[in-house]
UniProtKB/TrEMBL annotation:
Keyword Ribonucleoprotein tagged: no
The UniProt record lists the keyword Nuclease: no
Keywords: Membrane, Transmembrane, Transmembrane helix
Annotated stretches, region: Disordered: 1-22
Protein name per Swiss-Prot or TrEMBL: DUF2092 domain-containing protein
Biased composition (Polar residues): 1-16
Amino acid sequence: MAPNDSAETTGEATSTVGGGRRKASRYIVPVAVAGVAAATIGLVPALANTGDPDLPKISAQELVEKIAASDEEQLSGTFKISTDLGLPLDGLAGALVPGGERGGKGGGTAAPQDKLMELTSGTHTLRVAADGPERQKLSILGSSSEYSVIHDQGEVWAYENGSDEVYHAEAPEGRDAGEHAEKAPKGAAATPKDFAEQALATVGDTTSVTVDGTAQVAGRDAYQLLIKPKQSGSTVGSIRIAVDAENGVPLKFTLSAASGGKAVVDAGFTKVDFSRPAASTFAFTPPAGAKVTEADELETGKDEHGAAQKALPGQLAELEGLAGEEGFNVIGEGWTSIAEIKAPGGKGLPSAESGEVPAEAQGFLDALGDKVTGKFGSGTVFTTRLVNALLTDDGSVYVGAVTKDALVRAADAAAR
């Protein structure tokens, strides 16, 4: 393992990444990461690391600047993603989302919002190609099918081979596809670079950033950037980013929980090529007889799934604009920030005692969370390995990538 400068760098050292985003992300640190994880998700450690290359010494600040300066716009490759959020019921999200478990022939509208919900659990293999901001393609490879989202100069298509459903949208030319997360492949499913940008945008005074040796990912020599919270009480243990030593492109992203165990999110290339993909890679013509659903049909509710599509954004909303609004407050900062939301009407979960739900349903709700009490009264904590939420019986919600105890302390402090 090559010797590298592992001295800590500060938020100022990383201000080249994220720019104006830093203010927003400082108090919603893990939510940004969790939003990417929930919308488009991580990878099992199936990447063959074939040794630790001997690379020139580099500081943490220099490595972050190398990522920020990376201007590679052409690439193609395969990467694997998986996630282990520790949800109480495997596949619950897919079962509750219209289209979440549909696929193949007759599988809904073929819209990315439907298909990409499948990436919220399990292990998946994806193929990606990009030729600048005007052309990208992302394919989810199944055992007997392939679902693709294609952005080609203002046109966005989504299609699963063997089906008779095609999705079509207009994407303004000259705009980064990431600005249209629900329409274009770059925003619809994150590459390791997308994960890395989200993580680096959260760096501040509450964060330790170091260089932790080297690795080889997808046949490329890479430095390893290690990001860790300085604060106690966060459910995030660390974030590790393997950065291409030659061009600064993130090749692998791993988010580990403070509780240990397998990675919550682990996304990385198994193959990557930085030459320009053939133009034919991005060409698409709807198959004869296929039903083409236009994006504006879903947005205006003309399609039968329109309402559900509008209710299910592809990523978590930015919370900075809500801070200070009535009923919304941010407690703390950095990795231990907690969003406090006062529900209108002061009502908590429905209960069998109030006659709002059957006794059987009450048992189901109780099984999903842990009952807690404190100065705030009583409530229920719902947990994953990354994001936890406390819903009090008076209708207040406390949520963040923090421990259960941290949520209870925040609720107690708010009750004083």
